[in-house]
Amino acid sequence: xxxxxxxxxxxxxxxxxxxxxxxxxxxxxxxxxxxxxxxxxxxxxxxxxxxxxxxxxxxxxxxxxxxxxxxxxxxxxxxxxxxxxxxxxxxxxx
Amino acid sequence: xxxxxxxxxxxxxxxxxxxxxxxxxxxxxxxxxxxxxxxxxxxxxxxxxxxxxxxxxxxxxxxxxxxxxxxxxxxxxxxxxxxxxxxxxxxxxxxxxxxxxxxxxxxxxxxxxxxxxxxxxxxxxxxxxxxxxxxxxxxxxxxxxxxxxxxxxxxxxxxxxxxxxxxxxxxxxxxxxxxxxxxxxxxxxxxxxxxxxxxxxxxxxxxxxxxxxxxxxxxxxxxxxxxxxxxxxxxxxxxxxxxxxxxxxxxxxxxxxxxxxxxxxxxxxxxxxxxxxxxxxxxxxxxxxxxxxxxxxxxxxxxxxxxxxxxxxxxxxxxxxxxxxxxxx
Lengths: 94, 329
Ligand SMILES: [Fe+2]
Ligand SMILES: [Fe+2]
Known about the structure:
The complex is a heterodimer of chains A (94) and B (329).
Chain A: E1 7-13, E2 21-27, H1 31-42, E3 50-55, H2 67-75
Chain B: H1 21-31, H2 44-63, H3 65-69, H4 78-103, H5 109-117, H6 134-155, H7 161-189, H8 193-212, H9 224-229, H10 237-254, E1 265-267, E2 272-274, H11 280-290, H12 294-307, H13 309-328
Antiparallel strand pairs in B: 1-2
Helix pairs in contact in B: 2-4, 4-7, 6-7, 6-8, 6-10, 7-8
The structure holds fe (ii) ion (2 copies).
One fe (ii) ion (FE2) is lined by residues 91, 145, 148, 174, 177 of chain B.
Organism (chain A): Aliiroseovarius salicola
InterPro entries (chain A): PaaB, PaaB_sf
Protein name (chain A): 1,2-phenylacetyl-CoA epoxidase subunit B
């Protein structure tokens, strides 16, 4: 068995009521240490108020090759955008 | 630079006719300044070159802690000690960002560390010079991190997404490094004659090693063409070196110190400072392992790794036991 600590992906919420954002990764033996290490590595200058750590093996990702078929359903529905509809200026902002 | 003389995995640049459809599409993405992401298709040589460059860059951040760590316990004031400690801690973080970026290409950090310890990967030549006194610590922050910044600002535009993002993050932290160094040197340059002499001596000794950081002259660096085409490298060695000299000469003059190279002269026609070449034989010698501190630096890294093994293993064993217990419940 490899003795390398597992890889964790780190997500941090900044100060301003934002959602958590991926900031990078690190190695740690367990979740508790992952959060401690994330504190040391990714919040040395008040970059965050909340940390999520997720073991990298648990992240499922879409594959770039499927880009076409995966996003096609939204490409063909231009009417989902407000600019699709011409509303006369007289109506005012909408 | 922090990554010097990275051999591109192939020599010469492939022209469009030689490329497969996939390769052509890849090159088009790069030419459009699109970022390449970990799961995207990429040529094997692109991947290999990047791993080599990011790995060497990461090693430089980590080994670069040694010459400065040397002075943490001997800083002249408690404030300077705290500042230096914070600076060196940042460098550990930089190493981590870069190892993480390399890991996105499937190369493990342990493997990169192993290659370093076996002498099969390198780190920047600059860290094979000693830091003899406190003035050197100021000069390192100012000149060495200053040179690193010039390189790293350019690399923010590198084509590989994770590398570019690591550079952006690093650049945000670097200006603290350069400024604390310059500030320390300022105090000495404007201090007693003895302090000023120490500042001058540090600049004299570190100037040429600092400008060597950018690597050999463009005419000598035969491997960078493909790296430039792939935007793994964004500016040439000589371009970056010139930029560093132009920004640093006025900073030396402000301190009232003598220029460390009699060849430095403003060239009205070029709009740049002329300067002398460093001793390139010395550079290649240091790269080969014969610098003043090569042996010590590598030994310190290997010792730190081996001495820390029981902590890494212990924590991992504990984590495995804990998760086995949770699973059993
Ligand atoms: Fe750094
Ligand atoms: Fe730095």
